[in-house]
Design a protein that fits this description.
The chain has 397 residues and is of the alpha+beta class. The chain is 48% helix and 13% strand. A 3-stranded antiparallel beta sheet has the order 3-2-4. A 3-stranded antiparallel beta sheet has the order 6-5-7, with helices on both faces.
């Protein structure tokens, strides 16, 4: 029997809204020596550095499977929109990813508003790499879904170029980070620390004169700073008319992290956890769809058996029943992971609400509602798993 999955939801937080951490004594001393302040100090979600393992979509594919899979590509899609050449002149960019699967094959249509051809090509490459579409089994119905992604220049990561030499260099550093993934190799399950770099540019020179980083407390963090320093020193810069010094902060997130952020700022921990929660929600949607797909396969075999009474079908019937129970378990596990992420976000928001109730009461209410809904879904998944296990046990016996 097919079930209905709850809609995905998350708070309206974005990485670009990451708070600026107060500088320590060493940074403050260096900041006094800065001659300019630069922009384009945008956060980087290093999930885009994770090896792209194409998702194997269960067959027959259904809308939940497709929507969940496309939603898992959110970090890559939003990274596509970070650069100015991916967007038009408007402040808001809308991307629509339409996936269609038939027995003849699968295809993506990428459209939107304020989306350049370069941005469109980047999004297409991202979804085709992570979620390759294949033909559905013969006789399957057409399946089509649309995933929408919105980029707000004031809230999302949006590099802008052409203002001044220092800010352009800072912007090119941010655009370079997805190509510097070797620097982030130690952080597959963790969130990299926030780092502070200090840059000196010499008059008329097209390479940085000096790049240094504030000390980091862990060996992995020190290695990351050293690697980024080397990349920055090799990055060309427009020759400045005068010598300049500036500081540049590296704020990091990781949508794929399995370990919670240890950042001292609760606002930053919340943004990190909301990015993870979006991924957990997408994964649970996909897992629900996989459960529905397994159930459809089982129902088809049941119908075939009822028509033919062919006892040779019993082993296949038993195997497909077990596949439904296994899909139940994966669905329940995915929802439990989503529940834990929601609980952590609620805990952080309650920490923030204790300091500013007016600013955080609505967020707390939204997360409490999401927590209740996710707990109800977990209860359904666990009950369904228990019932299917019992049914399969009787069949196997």
């Amino acid at each position: 029997m097919k079930l209905r999955h709850a809609a995905m939801a998350s708070l309206a937080f974005t990485a670009a809204c990451a708070p600026v951490q107060k500088q320590g004594d060493a940074s403050s001393a260096q900041a006094v020596q800065d001659t300019v302040r630069v922009s384009n100090q945008h956060p980087f979600d290093m999930a885009v550095c994770q090896p792209a393992q194409p998702l194997q979509l269960p067959q027959p594919v259904n809308p939940d499977i497709l929507l969940g899979a496309i939603s898992l590509a959110r970090p890559q899609i939003m990274e596509c929109l970070a650069g100015p050449t991916s967007r038009g002149e408007a402040k808001n960019t809308r991307v629509v990813v339409k996936a269609t699967v038939t027995p003849e094959g699968g295809k993506y249509d990428i459209s939107g508003e304020n989306l350049s051809s370069e941005g469109q090509a980047c999004v297409r490459k991202a979804v085709e790499t992570l979620v390759p579409l294949a033909a559905s089994p013969k006789g399957s119905a057409l399946v089509t879904v649309e995933g929408e992604f919105t980029h707000d220049q004031s809230r999302s990561v949006a590099v802008t170029l052409g203002s001044d030499v220092g800010s352009d260099y800072s912007g090119n550093v941010r655009l370079g980070q997805p190509r510097w993934c070797d620097c982030y190799a130690a952080y597959t399950t963790q969130v990299p620390p926030t780092l502070m770099a200090h840059v000196q540019l010499a008059k008329g020179q097209t390479a940085p004169a000096e790049v240094t980083f504030d000390p980091v407390t862990t060996p992995e963090g020190t290695a990351l700073a050293t690697c980024l320093q080397q990349k920055m020193m090799a990055l060309p810069v427009a020759a400045p008319p005068d010598a300049m010094r500036f500081s540049r902060r590296f704020i990091h997130f990781n949508s794929q992290a399995t370990e919670p952020s240890t950042d001292p700022l609760p606002e930053q921990r919340l943004i990190q956890n909301e990015l993870v929660r979006q991924q957990r929600s997408a994964a649970s949607t996909m897992a629900f769809g996989a459960r529905d797909s397994a159930s459809e396969n089982y129902d088809a075999t049941v119908l075939k058996y009822q028509k033919t009474k062919d006892r040779k079908l019993l082993p296949e019937l038993s195997a497909k029943c077990n596949q439904v129970a296994e899909a139940d378990a994966k669905w329940a596990s995915a929802v439990e992971a989503q529940l834990k992420a929601t609980q952590l976000s609620l805990s952080i928001v309650q920490e923030l609400k204790a300091k500013d109730a007016a600013a955080w009461s609505a967020a707390e209410a939204s997360l409490q509602e999401a927590l209740t809904s996710t707990q109800e879904e977990l209860n359904r998944a666990q009950s369904r798993h228990k019932a299917d296990q019992e049914a399969c046990s009787k069949m196997n016996g």
